[in-house]
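User: Please predict the structure of the protein below. I'd like the answer in structure-token form so I can feed it into my own downstream comparison script.

Assistant: Understood. Taking the following sequence of 175 residues as input:
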Amino acid sequence: MMEKLFRFKLLVVIALAVILLSSFTLVKTHNRDNAYSLPSSVKALVTKETKGMTEKQIIDYSVQFTASRLQFAEANDMAHGKANCVGYAQYCSAVCNHALANNGYRHRSKPVVGYVSNCGVNLCSVLKSIVPGSHWQNFVKNHDFVELKLDDATYYFDPSLYDVLGDNCLTKKDT
């Protein structure tokens, strides 16, 4: 009996290591309609800090800036620094768009809905099947992140996962 328990624990540790060491992929399913407008003080800071950045540098900046300003919460209250993945994506997209516009770029980002994939597995579906109750199942059924279409590719990036895991899950899809 102890040997079976040890083998099971070892298998769980190996599975977790594979998941944590593999890269995550963001998969879009549809657009998010809601928009968020940055306060003037944040716009001024973003303008100052992003001067002269490339579009790809702006992606990284937007993710890191958003993570530094928000803390994960069940409900969005961005005025007080609290957000779920929907709020993180809206805030990050607003930061990204403000920086892009102030640096003369024509491209614009937008919040989108989809899921996080690891080794081809939809992690939102996995979470939905194991969390208790319909409230939490609804909460994890999908995931919001940001999309930016450039001339060479479409980029998906995730400020909430960056805040939690330190990985922006940058996914590049060639056009």
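That's the full token string. The longest helix spans residues 2-21.
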